[in-house]
Amino acid sequence: MWARSVLGIVSLALVFNDALAFKEQDFKTCSQSGFCRRGRALSQRAQEAKSAWQSPYSVDPSTISVATDKAVVQAGVKSSLYPEVNFGLEVRIQEDGAVRVRMDEVGGLRKRYDEAASWALISEPIISKNIKWVAGKKDLRASYGPNEVVVSYAPLQVTLYKNGKEQVVINGKGLLHMEHFRKKPEPAAAVEATPAAEGQEQTVIEAPENPRAWFEGADEDALWEETFNSWTDSKPKGPESLSVDITFPNHPVVYGIPQHATRLALPSTAGENPTFTDPYRLYNADVFEYLASSPVSLYGSIPLMHAHSEESTVAVFDLVASETWIDVSHSTDRSTETHWISESGILDVFILPGPTPDDVFAQYAKLTGTPPMPALFGLGYHQCRWNYVSSEDVRTVQKRFDEENIPMDVLWLDIEYSVDHEYFMWNEKMFPDPVEMINDVAATGRKMVVIVDPHLKRDNNYPAFTAAQELGILVKPKSGEGEYEGWCWPGSSSWVDFFNPNAWDWWKSLFKPYQLEGGKWSWTKSTEDVHIWNDMNEPSVFNGPEITMPKDNVHYDGWEHRDVHNINGMLYSNATWQALAVRSDPPKRPFVLTRSFFAGSQRFGAMWTGDNLGTWEHMEVGVKMVLSNSIAGLSFAGSDVGGFFGNPEPEMLVRWYQVGAFAPFFRAHAHIDTKRREPYLLPSPYKEMAIDTLRLRYTLLPVWYTAFRETSVSGKPILRPQYTVFPKDRRGWEMDDQYYIGGSGLLVKPVTKKDVREAEVYLGEDEVYYEYFTGETYRGAAKGRTVTVPAALDQIPLLVRGGSVVPTRERPRRASGLMKYDPFTLKVALSKDEGARGELYLDDGETFGHQRGEYVWREFTAVKSKKGLRVSSRDLGSARPAEAVEGASPGLTSYDRGNKYARTLEERDVRVEKVVVVGVKAKPKSVKLDSQGGKELEWEWTPGVGSKEKKGGRAGVLVIKDPGVKVTQDWDIVIL
Amino acid sequence: MVPWLLLALPLGATAAAGRDKLLGVHPSALAKYTPSKSNTWKCLDGSKEISWNAVNDDYCDCPDGSDEPGTSACPDSRFWCKNEGHIGAYIHSSRVGDGLCETECCDGSDERPGTCPNRCKEIGEAYRAKRDAELKIQKTGSKIRSTYIAFAHKERKRLEDLAASLEKDIVAKEKEVEKLREIAERTESLTQAALDHKRQSPLYQSLLNHNKALKSLKREYKKHADREKQLGQILDSLRTGYNPNYQDMAVLEADGEESSTPEPESEKTEEAVDDGLWTADELDSELDDLIGTDYTSLLLEHEDHINTPTEDSLLFKITSYIPDAWLPQYEAWKDNFVDWLEKLGIVSEESSGSSTEATRAQQALTEANTELNHMRREKTESESDVLKIFNPEHFGAEGEWKKLDDTCINHEVGDYTYELCFFKEAKQKPNKGGSNFSLGRFQSWNKDARPGSPEYYSKQVYQHGTRCWNGPERSVVVLLTCGVENTIYSVQELEKCEYQFKGTSPALCLPPGKEPQNHEEL
Known about the structure:
Chain B: InterPro entries: Gtb1-like (IPR039794), Man6P_isomerase_rcpt-bd_dom_sf (IPR009011), MRH_dom (IPR044865), PRKCSH (IPR036607), PRKCSH_N (IPR028146). Chain B: It comes from Ephemerocybe angulata. The complex is a heterodimer. By secondary structure, chain A is an alpha+beta fold. In chain A, 20% of the residues lie in helices and 27% in strands. In chain A, the strands form nine sheets. In chain A, strands 5, 6, 7, 8, 9, 10, 13, 15, 18 and 19 form a ten-stranded antiparallel β-sheet that branches. In chain A, strands 1-2-3-4-20-17-16-14 form an eight-stranded antiparallel β-sheet. In chain A, strands 30-29-28-27-23-22-21-31 form an eight-stranded parallel β-sheet. Chain A starts with a helix and ends with a strand. Chain B is α+β, with helices and mostly antiparallel strands. Chain B has three domains: 10-118, no CATH class; 140-263 and 279-311 and 355-393; 406-508, Mannose-6-phosphate receptor binding domain (Cation-dependent Mannose-6-phosphate Receptor, Chain A). Chain B starts with a helix and ends in a 17-residue tail after the last strand. The chains are: A alpha+beta, B alpha+beta. The interface between A and B is large, with 64 and 52 residues.
């Protein structure tokens, strides 16, 4: 016995040393997954049959029921394969023109999972009362504006037209197939097992020809059981998969369906010469050392896909929570075909008609919500490591940051803070004084984020586990009895089932930093300055199939894990978010970081791209992954600075800080095996470069915060890839290495390659751009132009689009909260028409006061006229109160300029200390504050190129010193 | 609306006008902050001339930031807090007006009036109390340190004396060796032929064969033992150093099996001993002796044994008649006497077999040589130890660390006790049993500091400890400060297998007044 295990260890040791890579064998390919195999085979048969192929599904016209008061139509659907099975179709048109197509089996043996929408959507979408369905002989039609939706009866097909042109076609390729519930056939073993008498010719009993073979294939494939590696999925419900093809006949490029480590414009997986041979997979998984280019599923799933062309942007949102595979191909260079294969659940597809990217963002936000205004500190710099090992360590790290005067908002604790990986429970040997430690960190305006994972160690002395056990809210094994046991960090663990409503109140109570009445356990050894990191919520199960839970595990109400897998992680961060919001009175904005996510997760905090590697290619793909999340609604995203695994060389770390500083979520993190790499440990001159980058992030916090206001209201992403800003510019469609930050006019192209000292930046318009630091001018062209920008190691290619006003705070401090009364600097970058516009949004960054009207929202403009250049500040809160903030209290219809927050800024004399006008060709004659009887201001002009000119070179810059105006106030500066 | 707007108009300028122009200026620089006759002022780097009004107006005019000593306007300037009643200090401009009342600026002069109360009195008192306490420790510590230094001097004396006496002994020994060599050479030539004949004996041949077999068995035994040890270590390090991020259940299981196995080896081996057979330990130690047997000598002794009469001579029996107190002198006298008798050929004439005589001579020579080498080595060591004692790169310029050479101190954290033996090795010992890990052997003092400086002795580096499972060799950095005891008070594994010990030692307590001054006092 002993000898055997030793041999085992030795051979393991050999395996380990060269196993530092993605473990391909741990995860399924399509061919290893029964329903994906069936789905792809269906597609293959359709292709081979060519025009002879026809979908067996059709609408029974006699069953059509058109609602009279709203745009809803219901109809029965039949499949010619199974005439005895009934399906119900419902097509709704929402107020904003989005189309919802739902189909379910009616009166079947069981019920398909239909609750994904209740978790992903913010509310039941409002159906249009004006748009009318008209039932014809061959189809149902509804027209509105340029759009028309057509539901053809035979075969069943749903098409969205715009101006008579096909935008989105469902089941146009006839791949729709909803496997109905059926009884497991009795084993016919007795007959077949009879051995034919020896020597006799075996009588071949002709099986009756399967009339459905043309569609479903001749053989049953993995309908009732499936084995992968050592795990067998018992599939008690049998086959219930769902295949649907969605075609974009006039859209050549598609984006979205995060999370995959690949380009933003999705490479093909089918058709001729596909980039990837496997479909994109959505099945939340803890993938160890994932590949930097792959369609393999990662930690989260958002089944939203944009399809884009010069004429329009449309999207489909396939609201399904089970494992889903998506093939993408282009049969022509102007079309895209997609095939979605899901393991279970109803068909619930939203067609978002666009027609612009911004419209699509708004339509999607209306369904799944927007990111709320984050706590301001969440936009600062986060310092993490697996692990800061003691409270002494934490204090030392903070001290080192202060000694070097490096801004930092949050210190993080990974799993080793807890004793035996029992989250909430401090390892008191290393953290003897947790509350004092947190208070020490908070004393400089900082916060802590502490990890709490969803697996609970099965330890009868662990209050979280015993309480969950008592409440009966743990996920059950396939038997449906008892508790599922799996392995994770603490060893044998169980998982809280957040589909169980009883789990929620209990979870909320745990985070109360004070003793609860009745003596129930709560986290008294924490404070309101502790926020939460939810990791491993795919869920990650070390000894489970594909490092996750068996699909036949049982959740609340009897649903199988297979039905809910992809939304499981979102429920966890949702519950934590709510727990933090209600732990204090009045409530404060929570910060929750999640690794797993689904459509709607944007409402519950930030995400990051998981356990990346410290390599240049991971740095590069991290940018693309964050962009992909941004366009799918989850803007508050970032990847680990430095890479989780490995020891990045100083140059790489400097570049990675530059990447991180231009991502919404900015955190450095490192694996336990790596060397320490806090920025102060870098050798000179790298250290100074990293610190300068961190300070730049802090000076730009007003830009980030203002961008968050916009996304919180409109759903427009924080990071905006080229196609979303210039949808008609073909040259920008494939670009995913440069992007704009909100509506600020900042265009950044982080360097993600070694030894690169120059960057090619693409300007998709005829406009002047200015290098952020030097004012060097770069001019675009109507057809687009690529310009070369210097990118020495201490330089981030960062341009300001002519026509923007960028508000900054040039006094970076130790933490963002310490800057709240600092004055602003306005960078007015003149356009070629000598105008500019920008916004600034401010609130307390902490409470929900903004929803009660406690905020300041300003607009800055520069307008050229015969009377000179007028730079003005106006109040946007009063002008557009209804669209100022997300979640505004009902009844808040006007804006009070004297609100509590604005008054604080008044009292603290928060000024605009400097106005920098870039692109001023001639030395001004005078610069006056218009509102104070023409008071002449102090200013300085540096000669250079004007914004209107064609030539390059440094821009002429006018610096106006302290105009003596408050940020809350309306003012005008006239430059003659 | 209108009144509100009017309210908004009084501006920052008014607030700035009231600001003290000299706020935040260090007393020594006050003279530099005076306006010119035309009411202008030059940035301290001379790069720009600005209006005197622009000094401390909360707007950064000078590229060097010198115009804003009292505000946060310039990103990299410093603010001088007077801290009357305590110690004046600079704070970074990023801390000016940040709303925090930092201890470094206890007078609150960096914040808006009314934000921070002047806490310099209490902070100053607390500081002084703390400093007094530290001073007391330092004083006590430095007294202990002076005993360390005295010890070093004694050690030097002792080692020098030792070296001197060894020198004498070496000279005597050298003479003796010379004499013995002559005797040995003389006897050897006579006996070679006789010896060759005796070696033909079947007994001798058989002994050689046995020896060969023993050697082979021992080689195999050692091979297996090494392997077993190695595997044991792998399992041990798996248990302690297993990297859970590999998420490999096989490792966990294998580890589980191993640790759940009761440790059978020690018990079993003890049971197995009977019939006078050797235990594993005895096997280890005795086998080597056995293999190393000089069979030629054995052969000769064997002959002697056969040929000698069974009675011992009177000389050897006399001890029984001598009082115990005289015994040592007698024994010494006897040894010398017999020795000389042999060397002079008086006794040897009586013993049969000249080969025995040759072997004995040879043995005597070898022994003497060994002793001589030993003495020489000892002498070299003492000499080099003397040099190390006062070498700044070893035991310090005053030899203050010599006392701690090989002193061991412990600290318990969680499931482990950490042991530090100064200048030797650091170890991790599991409290619940299991094998110890070396965390490294002493390598150097703080290489980033000048040898001899206090910083140099504030850090010791121990390296090349047991290699971690799938990781680096363990190592330790020991950070030391002055304290009245030699202790470790904190052990942290800041990076995988890289430990940081924090401790105190009186050896670092310089007499008060001798240490470099860090603080400026008002």
